[in-house]
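Hi V.,

You were right to ask for the full record rather than a summary. Here it is.
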Amino acid sequence: MLTKVKVLAQIRKIAHRDITTMSEAPWSVVKEINNDIQGQIIAIAKVLGYKWNGKIYMPRHAPPINTWVYLAPDELVKEFYSVPEKQGIHVGYLISRPRVPVYLNIKGINRHIAIIATTGSGKTWTSIVLIEELLRKGATILVLDPHGEYVKIKDSIHRLGTEYLNSVTIVKGHKDQEGDILYRVSIKNLSHEELAAVAGIPSNASRIRTVLHGVKSLATILAEAFNKPKMLSLKSLRILTESAITAMEHKSSLRTFYTRLSHELRLRLNLDLANLEKNPGYAERIMNAVRRIWLGLKRDADIGFDLIRYLENLARIGVYGSKTISLEEILKPRHITIFNLSGLRKEVQDHLAYNILSRIFKARVNFKRGLKGEKYPYPIVVIVEEAHRFAPPKSIEDTWSREILAKIAAEGRKFGVFLVVITQRPSKIDPDILSQCQSQIISKIVNPRDQDAIRDASEQLSQDLLENLPGLNPGEIVVVGPLTPAPVMLRVRDRVLDYAGRDIDVVKEWSHYPEELHNLDSIITRLRTVLELSLGVKALNHVELAKATTQVISMNNDADYRAFKKAVELVANNSIGKVRYDEDVGLISGEVNGETVEIRLSDGTWKCSCGKLDKPCLHVYSVFIKAVTSKVIDVDQLKKWIKLRTLNMLL
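Predicted structure:
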């Protein structure tokens, strides 16, 4: 029995055809046509299908010629895109029918989601709306936030209702960040390659890495043998390295080095290696570790001081130590955990993302399969902002995070770990990960390479939809995949929660320029006063001021004036984070634009993670100027270190 159904189609193109230009009309007819006669209006539509028993089907045959076409009523369109009430999440309204709300099917998240849009097109706005809906459904949500854009959610969470007041946790990736809980990673669980990478040791610094491998191995043995977990801390690794440097005096042989190192460990840590030499299981392992340290130091013991500086830089982050934070401290149902990774070096961001994602995946596997180890009982949605930073193709960059993200993309649905990857550059994401995100939420995309990447990753994005992407306005999106019964174009609804990723108000920002000029003058005046008093000179002009600053930092006046000038501007604009001063060793340290800086006033040396070596860089100048002008260090302290440095040179 035949049943009549209402087939829905979407008009994709409207064209006007002038009858006088029709090729099939002979000239004898055309010349007699009245000029007032109208041509034909032709509309080209794409059939979307019809709904039957809650599912959408495509008709097997085209409608017969002369079949009437009607404007679909709103109720029919609403029913066509509807999903079961318990599964629906309200994200917006049809672009062509602003009165028709669109609900996506939350079950579609099982197959992962990609949110793709150019900067300023509303991808973060869309993710905030998605977070609001997921919270209402009771989800456990983790956001990897490399720029701190989502931190503001906590200040506005009350707008969702009083029941959500305690449903946001900010996890800090650095001890000096604002947040609720500092994430912690146990060094015990890190390989020496991981530890070297997060410490920022270059891959070609083989001797430093060799010493680190030996020190880490020795610390592991001591922690196990003497039941001292704190041996696997950055402080203990530094003490072991210092002991090794002392034991290496006069280029000792391996046996002499071992004897002296044992003596140093008794003095510094009250640990006697002789107690372990009788145990064959420990004796061989200890000797292997000591041999690695000796091999790394035997040509130049100063390599050990380089390692200490890397370890001290890592210690300032505060995350890496002898303990690990439990997942249940930071993950809860109907709760969003924002992992704030802003201000960290890219290598540290990558490793922390890898660490928490690996733990989450393993905890869910352990729970589902009843295995031993850390468990988490609830499904988790992981939102990865700037996903191209963490999961680029292997041909572009090798990252720790990519492998675990690929594993979650391939197997996560079986264990209740679901991905939402967000990016403005889909061509810069590993294609295997992107293709596993079967639902795609796409806004304006103009770059042809990015359009090709989207086409390759999506089986449901037709050419006509792809052609619409460059013309989408901010806040307008195309949704394809299991999230929706059929591909749909909609405008995202207003969000409730705040975020910090919006465009700046340039008129407002530029209005601050006179104030910044005043700040600039104040910075230069303060810096000039301190340096004139510290160095015993007078009337420094701008060029001389740059040379004097360089002299204090590095014992010479070979200044990079352009870098110095830019550093003064950064300090005047309050673009430099917190700086620290260790009075005991004369060390100024801080972070600038993700780079870590150390300035040792005691010996006139400096170091920056950007790798510049010939002259102080922008970051070094910035940290020093900030320390001086914000009174972190005063004139008397500068005088002391300059005087001490001069005496050491004379001796």
